[in-house]
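Aim 2 progress update. The chain analyzed this quarter is reproduced below.
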Amino acid sequence: YFDKIYKYCYFKTQRDKYITEELVSKVFFLLYQKWDQLNNRSDLEILKWLYCTATLIIKEYNRSIKYVVSI
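Predicted structure tokens:
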């Protein structure tokens, strides 16, 4: 699962390696925390959960960024 989620986050973060690593680690930490609830699901369902979680974490990250506009 790691490669797919890493690539997804990498392209969603304008190819920033450091931000991608941070976001991917959050996704898989959440998977670890929720494993008891998810371990009975199929591979496809887990992958879907990972993509949805990654999307939410990326959106959260984007909201937290302070954009600076120079005049």
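The chain has a mean pLDDT of 92. The first helix runs from residue 2 to 12. These observations will guide the mutagenesis experiments scheduled for the next reporting period.
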